[in-house]
Amino acid sequence: MEYLIKSALAATEIAPSSGPSGELFSAGEKAPMAALAPSLAHRAEAGSRGAPDEGAALAPAFVILAESAADMQAREALLDRAMGPKRRKKSSEKLRRGRRPSEGLAFVARDPSGAVVGTVRLWDVMLGEGGPAALLLGPLAVEPGLKSGGIGSALMRHAIAEASRLGHSAILLVGDAPYYGRFGFSADRTGSLAMPGPYERHRLLALELKEGVLDGAKGTIKAAGRRVKALDFVA
User: Fold this and answer.
1) Three-state secondary structure string covering 101-145
2) Is the pTM of this model over 0.90?
3) Domain 3-223 adopts which CATH fold?
4) What integer pLDDT is reported at residue 162 of this predicted model?
């Protein structure tokens, strides 16, 4: 399904019940899964707080689509511009290396010319030895010159809604709580979990898509996704 992102001058429209605000909920607050389902028409939010939507530029109209093999080169170039070469050294990369994104959960945002201006992927993981299955979100990146138009927010909402629709139970990520808290992520349920490498504990955040799934979750997060084959495209 394509999501047409209209003007960057108005607040994001997610669902009729979500109101005019571009934020789904305040930091650490959970919302019902119904509130995450995006409407067919979105409006990009101007002036969102925090990366990757921070800045003063306004985004043009854009669409969110499933990532394809043809997007690999453009996606990698975008990640290099947005995150720099050190992105490959992050602990989350250890959970992605040699794996494919979770089925149906890799998306790009395109501008009217067809250029890739945003990207997000989700990956299958296990929470500790024999623990519950979950998703790891990342990287989320937006073209550096278009960071105020709500592209990152739209990608987040779309990714969460699709993960919920496909029956997944929880999403984890490593990021800034002030930004990701608007989508319901917090560190409240991750104190007994760890990444497989250096990371800042307060930045390990989670969102339950099914209530109670993180109860008792502990241990090191492990990769559980489909392995890369010779002709697969992954970063």
Assistant:
1) CCCCCEEEEECCCCCEEEEEEEEEEEECCCCCEEEEECCCEECHH
2) no
3) Aminopeptidase (3.40.630)
4) 98
